[in-house]
Amino acid sequence: MTAVDYTVIVVYLAGMLALGWWGMRRTSSTSDFLVAGRRLGPLMYSGTMAAIVLGGASTIGGVGLGYQYGLSGAWMVITIGLGLLALSVFFSARIARLKVYTVSQMLDLRYGGSSGLISGIVMWAYTLMLAVTSTIAYATIFDVIFGLDRVVAIVLGGAIVVCYSTLGGMWSITLTDMVQFVVKTVGVLLLLLPIAVVKAGGFGAMKAELPHGYFSPMGIGGQTVFTYVLIYSFGMLIGQDIWQRVFTARDDRVARLGGTAAGTYCLAYAVAGAIIGTAARVLYPKLSAPDDAFATIVKDALPVGVKGLVLAAALSAVMSTSSGALIACATVANNDIWARLRGRSLRTAGASHDEVGGNRVFILIMGVAVIAISVVLNDVVEALTVAYNMLVGGLLMPILGGLLWKRGTGAGALASVGVGGLTVIALMGWKGILANEPIYFGLLASLVAYVAVSLATKPTDAAILDVWRRRLAGEPAVPASETTSPATAGA
After folding, report:
1. Please, what CATH class does the domain formed by 3-345+356-378 belong to?
2. Is 472 exposed, middle or buried (CB count within 10 Å of its CB: 0-12, 13-18, 19+)?
3. Which segments of the chain belong to CATH 1.20.1730.10?
4. In the predicted model, what is the mean pLDDT of the chain?
5. Is the separation of the CB atoms in 251 and 39 below 8 Å?
6. How much is the pLDDT for 356?
């Protein structure tokens, strides 16, 4: 690392804080703070959506999987891209029309307010652990850059994200994510990818050096790919961090086309990461851990200045996911959990009363909690697996069922969340956190509970379904009582 590299990184970090301040000046309402005023156009929407889904796991972990398995290591990030494509093409337009702030508020709108608290708790736990795993990744990057102690690195990186997120909410995060998307594209796709391939001698030399399995599309194993689809593709369909970005779209066309562009970008990013990892295997065949491949090839193979930019790209990847998860966590904690515990019903917590200050306080509180947990937690993979297993096993069926099956009921949704979540927890305790069985049987149990209890209980009230159908269609005319609730109202 030279003075030029350090300068690039410090200027980048200072720029993030400056954008946070600028975003604060654009924030004057709850809608501005939580969903960027619901007015992002296609360019900003697609860039920020790509930024949030491609985090440290997709960058550092994606290169690590390429190092370990070759080109088939792209499958983890490919399934993320496929999930985003499915969300954008089939569901994003309807989601954007609902004009809500959280996934739990969507469930309240669809089922009549019977499952919001428990679904909010599950979603809060998921977003909290997602923010934690992203924050832990700062330790690896700052250790390479500055040689900092793990705790100092986590606190430094986390404090920067908490600062700009607290200042301007989603506007600050949107502005910083757009910069991070550009830096990530230049650093990883346009610089590191071709340089790594050239350093490894080109694709011909790589094929000659490595076993044939490194260039097999299914070398990682079919069961692993299937598990990735269940966890990551389905996770993209229902995560609060992803939905909150959908809510920022100016209209349903932006949500659909911008999301499709972001999903396509993810596929290219997946292949790039796997190729970089494969090249690193040729250059450094005896690394102690696959996840060291990214930092090693950046440190040893890149020229002055470029090294700083690519490390800034790695910071971009981590910061975009971390900030998105943080605001999602705070939004759920404030609007789905704290408001209910205070006895504020969804019909009395008026949307006309903007609570920018309250949401800002919750981001700060959640940010401090995330940093504290990150300091004491070591196993990132296990934490992320627990988060996704709980999310998909507990909430996939009630959410997709609510969007696709009109016979689904609130009792069925509640049973699905409880049975699926408990099944996942029990099997993780029995088979192990990283086993495949928890998500397989958790989803099956959740589906059976949702269908069986829905069919056994009285159908959802016709008036509730009527409001739901009109909101899905984007019709403005709704009963006055519904327009006063943040669960059923937008900005």
Report:
1. mainly alpha
2. middle
3. 3-345+356-378
4. 85
5. no
6. 79
